[in-house]
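Re: How this chain folds, sequence and tokenised backbone to follow

Filed under: protein folding, tokenised backbone structure, sequence and structure records.

Contents: The amino acid chain and a row of whole-number tokens, matched residue for residue.

Body of memo: The sequence and its backbone structure tokens, given next.
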Amino acid sequence: MKLSCVRSTRNRRNKNKTGRGALFMAGAVSLMLLITGCGDRPSDILDEDTYINLLVEIHILRAIDNRFEDHQKTMSIQESVLSHYGVSIEQFDRSHHYYMQDTEAQRDRISKARTRLNEELADLNSRLMVLEREEEEKKEEEVVEEREEQEEI
């Protein structure tokens, strides 16, 4: 009698271990499916490069809107920008909410957008310097021409 009790206890322990192992494996498989399933981007979500480009464009537009306070013109330009990319504001908003779910990756995207904005700013500043230099040279030429005309008289 004693032996059968020991055997039945061992069988219960083995069944419990097998049950826990199966439960653990099912949980691990479910977790892997969940993780790999989360990586699939829905079809209506913008690809990251397009999203970042639009993030930059919209940020610039908002800065312009804050400075010049012409909201109607800003919205018109925003519609043109979105149209250029073939995107609706609703699709951009859905993409924005989708990408915001992964905060670490969103920080990286925002960092990329910030880098692009800084590059744009540097490019605009260098263009502005060239234009200012050209304007100064033009003024100097006009002064020289005026002097020459006065000397002729």
Summary: Residues 42 and 151 are 75 Å apart (CA to CA). The chain has two domains: 1-40, 44-152. The first helix runs from residue 2 to 38.
